[in-house]
Specification:
3-stranded antiparallel β-sheet, 3 strands, alpha+beta
Amino acid sequence: MKSVTELTKIEKSGNGAKCVGADGRTTVWTGDEIVSLNLWGFTPGFFGHLRAQFAEFLKTGCDQTSEFYLPAAVNSLIATGRERCRILKTPDSWLGVTYREDRPAVAAGINRLITSGVYPQPLWPKT
């Protein structure tokens, strides 16, 4: 991977999505783009870099609503050549709950995965 960009304020737009970036430009997606969804696997050495970046982030006088964006931290390590990052692709679709309105579609998607045998039934065994 050559770079990764953190995007916020993404919203549905027709069959795809769109977002207005910090620069004011609107980006539109079809749904076929590669996304990370913040599922990362790091080698032990990576954490020292992240720890240092997080310490710098805390020094900036951030408030309780500030976020330390992991993709931005990873991107800076890639851009400076201190780390490399590899993408692992999957043909699966993302089922994510960001808003209350997302719940029915996610529940239906999980039920389809259970019915097709991808997920076990019950999904969470009783302990």
